[in-house]
Design brief:
The protein starts with a strand and ends with a helix. With about 140 residues, the chain is an alpha+beta fold. The protein has seven helices and four strands, in the order βααβααβααβα. The structure holds inosine-5'-diphosphate. The site of inosine-5'-diphosphate has 8 residues, from loops.
């Protein structure tokens, strides 16, 4: 039996773009062996972000998160590969960049900047259902 090829949505969040880390993040995705299928620079509006983060509505970090995601351009990437959904989450590291493992994108490149939202450089879909929903939102 072979492992099926999956697709996931990766976002380089506004902090990653502003810090000129897009190339470094793409390099890590490619070096792991995943394929870049589509890529675009997006100025996300409230409508898109409230759908993307619907599950977090009402949480204390929701408003700062939506504001942060509108603070600058985002690079949206469609990435393909066997088990790429869990594979990219592993490359990204855990949510809090201060404690994310060294070797991961968040662990190597991110930290706490004293803000209400964790600026942790990247987003990656967390399940096949989320990936399908999010890819439709960001790539239509
Ligand atoms: P994930 O991006 O690691 O999957 P989620 O729990 O889906 O994490 O949260 C979405 C985003 O919201 C995070 O990436 C981070 O930017 C922000 N966030 C999550 N939890 C907190 C928190 O407790 N404080 C501040 N920001 C948070």
């Amino acid at each position: 039996m072979t492992t099926p090829v999956e697709e996931t949505l990766v976002l380089v969040k506004p902090d990653g773009v502003a810090r000129n880390l897009t190339g470094e993040i793409l390099r890590r995705i490619e070096a792991k062996g995943y394929q870049l299928v589509d890529i675009r620079l997006v100025e996300a509006d409230l409508e898109l972000l409230s759908q993307h983060y619907a599950e977090h509505q009402g949480k204390p970090f929701y408003e700062p998160l939506i504001e942060f995601m509108q603070s600058g351009p985002i690079v949206a990437i469609r990435v393909a590969g066997e088990r790429v959904i869990e594979g990219f989450r592993s490359l990204a590291g855990t949510t809090d960049p201060t404690t994310a493992a060294p070797g991961t994108i968040r662990g190597d490149l991110g930290r706490d900047w004293g803000l209400k939202v964790q600026q942790n450089l990247v987003h990656g879909s967390d399940s096949p259902e989320s990936a399908a929903r999010e890819l439709a939102l960001w790539f239509g």
